[in-house]
Amino acid sequence: MQKLRLITTTFLLLLSFPSFSEELDLELVLLADATGSIDDAEIRFQRAGYAEAITDASVLNAIESNIYGKIAVTYVEWGDLLSQDVVVDWTVISGKASAHSFADSLMEAPRRAYGRNAIGAALLKGKDLIDNNDIQGLRRVIDLSADSANNWNGPTISEARQKVVSAGIVINGLAVLCRHCSGRPVTYDLEERFYTDIIGGPAAFVVTADSPQTFADAVRKKLILEIASRPEDANRIVQQMAHID
Asked: Would you say the pTM of this structure is higher than 0.85?
């Protein structure tokens, strides 16, 4: 009887642990602004910046520099409380072919997200996508881009950030200031608001794009900083990229 009880307890314990189909270096949710200030041309501009960055040799180098040499990425466009669209579902990127497949899917998908800013809801959508996938990443990151720090509906940014960071997920940010690549410049210090209100977790950071010319470059640098597990690797790759540019 005692032996049967031990076997049953062991079985139940095994069931309580999640089953992962793949282990890799990073789970990365890219949350891209698709609110009312972003028109369809700007949506495509943003996507093109990410598609160009994810296939860039420097970004692929950052992926290869890690333990497993592969990451999982999903791209989500967010609007209001009820509008968060998974444009490209979780994709494992381990080299040039998978990176280009992700980029092609990103550029081909239609737009579905609209509405006024609900950053809190977007952050919780990112958390949900990480919590409910079948991937085990050594690190977990949500990367939010926005041209304002407003939150007109849904959960507050503060409560969403607290839930995300408490779950061991880092929030990084891309503050978009350029009018012709994503919305209108705001009257307050957007970068400062990202630092004080949005990002969180160990080594969280903000990258700023202040012109159409700097947008793609900002995305590349941001991805490298997120992907490379060691700061020295990230710095080395960014310096090499600057030298090539």
From this structure: yes
